[in-house]
Amino acid sequence: MSDASSLLSPVLVGPYLLRNRVVMPPLTRNRATDEFVPTARMAVYYAQRASAGLQVAEGAPISEQAVAYPRVPGIWNASQRDAWRQVTDAVHAAGGVIFLQLWHVGRVSHSLTQPSGELPVAPSAVRIEEGEIYTPEGLQEFEAPRSLGTDEVRAIVQDYAAAARNAMRAGFDGVEIHGANGYLVDQFLNDQVNRRTDRYGGDVPNRLRFLLEVVDAVAAVWGPDRVGVRLSPSGTWMDCRDTDKKSLYSAAVEALGERSLAYLHLVEPTIAGSMSVEASPDAISSAYFRHLYSGTLIVSGDHTLESGAKAIDNGTADLVGYGRAFIANPDLPTRFEQGAPLAEADRALFYSHDDKGYTDYPTIEEERHLTALMAAEEAGQLSFEAVRRALVNGDPLAQVARSQHYARAHFAPEPR
Ligand code: PHB
Questions:
Q1: C-beta of 48 in contact with ligand 1 (< 6 A)
Q2: Of all protein residues, whose CA lies closest to atom 8 belonging to ligand 1?
Q3: Contact (Cβ atoms closer than 8 angstroms) between residue 359 and residue 396
Q4: Could you read off the pLDDT of 138-181 as tens digits, one per residue?
């Protein structure tokens, strides 16, 4: 059994004393409404996972233009803002701390998704060559986006500020700016995507300008100590390429280091979007950025209990994010503490519609209870009728036992 004590020790992030260093990073799950309004189901899901030291709620588009995917929860209008309250109230009632990730996808969208059927926007009219994008009419190739005018860029900075104010009124404890994974902020950073000749393009300081204006506008709303930034310095997902990622992200990290933010959140080099990949030969390790950043550092991607504890012990990180593990293990810190086995997340249900693969992953305690219930039933000590009665009386564990038993009896195991 590994020693999880360093992961389970408290840590100060901005003004918040977090109970542990296990972070639930932002995870797109598509459980909002077709109008991009958060749902009660989402409140259940986040509350189930509130034992994380910090939860960063999934990317929330800051405007209609910022959307790429269906049923993502927005933060640009009053209905969305008020519906997020269910989530923040449920998490706070469970003793958790929750930030919201502010998201604009830029060119990672499609005219079939965009308001009034317009082209998606980007720093320059450079198309994503690889891959396809989901649209209401099925998968499509990416289009060449429309290049933003200088005034439009300033207007988007203001959209971030407005979304930040909405997040505050929705009851979040802070916000994270999504600067990773090839979305809009990352598109401004990388020289193969940003071909602008105005003050937002060209040399590194110009390409950093959009990120820093967004950070400063959002920090003016929240105070810098309640604002985090996420970057993916080794990522090339969504064709986000630069001739010198090391210089680019070093400059970005140093500029962020001057701003006394809540944290910097780095995506590890083995992650491409939501998938694990081989790190590229020129990947830059998170440890490299540790030397450039004296504030609080979160690293996320492919960590185990062992690697996460080690990162904290040797000082490469202050907190560690566990995305897929948190999907399948709502009580992840408890499992770490007990050295209990981790359940595997079912990828086929990452972006589906309902509770299946979302709110129905049991805690380790529920799993044990369930195993006992099923064993008792199979040994004839507990009648099917007794389980049914418990079910009718609303015992959620009986409900899980019943459905698992039923699934085992009637269906072959689903392929993963
Ligand atoms: C995804 O939906 O797969 C996704 C969304 C946002 C990210 C990465 C992946 O930053």
A1: no
A2: 273
A3: no
A4: 999 999 999 999 999 999 999 999 999 999 999 999 999 999 99
The pLDDT tens digits of the residues spanning 267-295 come to: 999 999 999 999 988 899 999 999 999 99
Query: How buried is 325 (Cβ within 10 angstroms: 0-12 exposed, 13-18 middle, 19+ buried)?
Result: buried
Tokens linked to 82 = 């008020």
Angle (deg, nearest 10), helices 396-410 and 384-392: 130
Active-site positions read: 183
For tokens 């280091």, name the residue: 257
DSSP secondary structure string for all residues of 153-177: HHHHHHHHHHHHHHHHHTT-SEEEE
- Among all chains, which residue has been given the structure tokens 């990773």? 180
Q: 315 with 290: CB under 8 angstroms?
A: yes
Residue 405: HSE in the Cβ half-sphere, 13 Å Cα cutoff: 21
Assess whether the C-beta atom of 273 lies below 6 angstroms from ligand 1. Answer: yes
- Give the number of other Cβ atoms within 10 Å of residue 251's Cβ: 18
The reported pTM is 0.93
Given a contact cutoff of 8 angstroms between Cβ atoms, the answer to whether 101 and 57 are in contact is yes
Q: Residue with the nearest Cα to atom 2 of ligand 1? A: 28
Q: Which ranges in 103-200 belong to alpha helices (H)?
A: 150-169, 184-189
| 57 CA from centroid of ligand 1 (Å) | 12
